[in-house]
Specification:
The N terminus is likely disordered. With 645 residues, the chain is mainly α. Helix 3 packs antiparallel against helix 4, helix 10 crosses helix 25 and helix 16 packs across helix 20.
């Protein structure tokens, strides 16, 4: 019995079914969506929709669907899609986009052939690691790879597509299991983070408000929303028209300052930038005040560390050891997130093993018992898969354990902070394990197998699928949707995104050639592997020390926040603001923070809510204009850059 008097059975009937027609619409859109993403980030390397947290390609598609749905509602009211159906499409498109994006399938497909195509007698790749790469997961035949790398060919010629089928089918199966494992973890985490800790999920506030049939914000009838929409559209249009037509004055939305003298030139990497990206201002308004302050403050603090290191002569040894500090920071955030919900998580696990009863999992995407066992079996499969590839069993356990822990941390960061981007640059399990253990102890077989996971462990973690899963479950709860069918559709979206992106990548590559497209990571993974094998190393003492420093710094900040409610700094801001993605985001967040502080000071919570449509309009206007110009410029064969990253 619940507080409102309803029984479990009675409440269950109030959950709206997730319809198959909404999934069918998403299935029809996903191939076009994947191809669009590939053209933007792989062919032109211009607008990269999956480099930011709120995927502008999905927002644009949703706005089109909402407009069409409004028209259908007037003509055939019963045929219109409900909010639950629209959000189901949104969730599936997000899953598909995450895998089709720059950091996953666009890395996986070239990875299958890079180690063989770029092997030369002078680099000795064949002797170094070819024997350690499992042939059932790669495409080693250079004759088949010629068309893929040089272009002017066709995927559909005899013998071209068949060698790709087996490895890509196996990788797709692995992706299915990985997605299911993450979904199980999301189910376990959802109630603790959403209902007990009441995290705000800023990223999905826009799609939630966009799809409401009747909203207290009256979003599409609100003049402030259209004002924000118009301002963002005008700024974006002028900027992009200036790139297409030289006679139109160019309006730069991003300006980077370069320094020539020491110690200030230490800021040149990654750079000190100033931008006026409307979407970042809009998203910054939705972020809690203390977390928004932490984002821009810590970005400048990172620059202070670089300047200090240069002035003191420490840069030569690697100070401020950014990667190591990031590792320690996210590990601290992970431990804190799990520790703060330890009682709830223990209850869930006891319930799964039949040692405790009464844990309410009504309305969840799956029973807690299913989620716990699914996470255990899925993780076990991933570990065995790595072992079959050539990893030592202990190493596979560490690698995937760290990867899933990092996935949970990225998900937590988005649920709590909702930053415009989250770039855990070069702070994943590969750098942690090589720093703490040394490449010599890991061994050539494990290093080679780990290199084939460069696509899930690729430098940054911008478009990660797990945060989108948890956000979809939160949206389902907000709209009283039946999350169990949604869970199936989420996995389906991930698989379709993988398959269509892999096909699109092969199709484009055989036509244009990988080497002619903008694929800077084409050699990075195997160059690093060759370096590891040429120069085996032991544990990196400096990295270990500064990983501990980052961990202690995180714990200290969290303790200060716990002890003093007014303390404004949060380590989440430290972990997301360290690298070059935030060079274009810190200033818009500063503007949003100042705006929100002013509005709350003089208008209170009521003023904050009244102003929200303006900032949501900034996001939508930015997404619509960027999407339209990306389509026009792609059709014209012109590279138009809006987002620097």
């Amino acid at each position: 019995m619940y507080a409102n008097g309803m029984t479990v059975k009675e409440e269950t009937h109030h959950y709206e079914r997730v319809s198959f027609r909404s999934a069918l619409i998403a299935i029809l859109i996903i191939p076009f969506n994947s191809y669009w993403i590939l053209y933007l980030s792989y062919v032109f390397d211009s607008n990269r929709p999956t480099s930011i947290a709120l995927l502008f390609n999905v927002v644009f598609i949703m706005l089109i669907l909402i407009a069409l749905n409004s028209l259908i509602r007037r003509i055939i009211p019963r045929g219109a899609l409900s909010q639950v159906e629209l959000l189901t499409i949104y969730a599936m498109l997000c899953q598909a986009s995450a895998f089709a994006g720059r950091d996953m399938i666009q890395v996986l497909v070239p990875l299958l052939g890079n180690g063989f195509w770029y092997a030369r007698p002078e680099n000795e790749w064949a002797e170094l690691f070819h024997s350690y790469l499992p042939k059932w997961l790669v495409v080693p035949d250079r004759k088949i790879l010629r068309g893929f790398y040089e272009g002017n060919s066709s995927l559909y010629e005899a013998g071209h597509w068949r060698p790709w089928v087996r490895p890509l089918a196996i990788w797709t199966g692995f992706i299915g299991v990985m997605s299911f494992t993450m979904l199980c973890l999301s189910v376990i985490l959802r109630k603790q983070w959403s209902e007990h800790e009441k995290l705000t999920y800023p990223i999905v506030r826009l799609p939630l408000e966009m799809t409401k049939e009747r909203s207290d914000l009256n979003l599409f009838r609100n003049r402030l929303m259209w004002l924000g929409f118009s301002i963002a559209s005008a700024i974006n249009a002028i900027s992009e028209l200036g790139q297409i037509f030289p006679q139109i004055p160019f309006l730069p939305l991003y300006k980077e300052i370069h320094f020539s003298e020491k110690p200030w030139n230490a800021m040149n990497s990654p750079g000190l930038g100033f931008s006026l990206f409307p979407f970042a201002i809009g998203l910054g308004y939705l972020i809690p005040l203390d977390l928004a302050f932490s984002c821009w403050f810590f970005h400048l603090f990172w620059h202070f560390e670089r300047v200090l290191g240069s002035a003191m002569g420490w840069r030569a040894v690697g100070f401020p050891f950014r990667t190591a500090q990031l590792q320690g920071t996210w590990i601290g955030l992970f431990i804190f997130a799990i520790w703060s919900g330890r009682r709830y998580f223990l209850s869930v696990f006891r319930s799964a093993f039949g040692r405790e009863k009464g844990i309410d999992d009504t309305g969840e995407a799956m029973r807690y018992r299913t989620a716990v066992w699914g996470a255990i079996l899925g993780s076990t499969f991933m570990i065995i898969f790595g072992w079959r590839m050539g990893m030592s069993l202990w190493f596979a356990l560490l690698f995937f354990g760290i990867y899933l822990a990092m996935s949970i941390t990225v998900t937590r960061v988005r649920a709590e902070l909702g930053p415009p981007a989250h770039d855990f640059y070069n702070a994943g399990p590969d750098t942690i394990l090589t720093s703490f253990l040394g490449t010599r102890r890991i061994g050539k077989e494990s290093l080679s197998a780990m290199t084939l996971f460069f696509w899930i462990n690729h430098l940054s973690y911008r478009a990660h699928p797990m945060p989108h899963q948890l956000e979809a479950l939160w949206l389902a709860r907000q709209t009283k949707a039946n999350a169990r069918r949604l869970a199936f559709f989420l996995i389906l979206g991930a698989l379709l995104g993988t398959i269509t992106a892999a096909w699109g990548h092969l199709h484009i590559s055989y036509r244009l050639g990988l080497e002619l497209c903008r694929s800077w990571y084409a050699k990075a993974a195997y160059r690093r592997l060759a370096s590891w094998m040429y120069n085996p190393t032991g544990p990196n003492r400096n990295n270990i020390i500064f990983t501990i420093v980052g961990f202690l710094f995180t714990v200290s900040l969290l303790n200060l926040r716990k002890r003093f409610l007014w303390f404004p700094l949060h380590p989440v801001g430290y972990v997301v603001s360290s690298w070059w993605t935030f060079t274009g985001l810190w200033f818009p967040i500063l503007i949003a923070w100042l705006s929100k502080r002013f509005i709350l000071s003089y208008g209170g919570a009521k003023g904050y809510r009244r102003a929200m449509p303006f900032f949501l309009g900034l996001i939508m206007g930015d997404a619509v204009t960027a999407s339209i110009f990306s389509i026009i410029s792609s059709a014209m064969g012109i590279r138009v850059v809006y987002l620097r990253w």
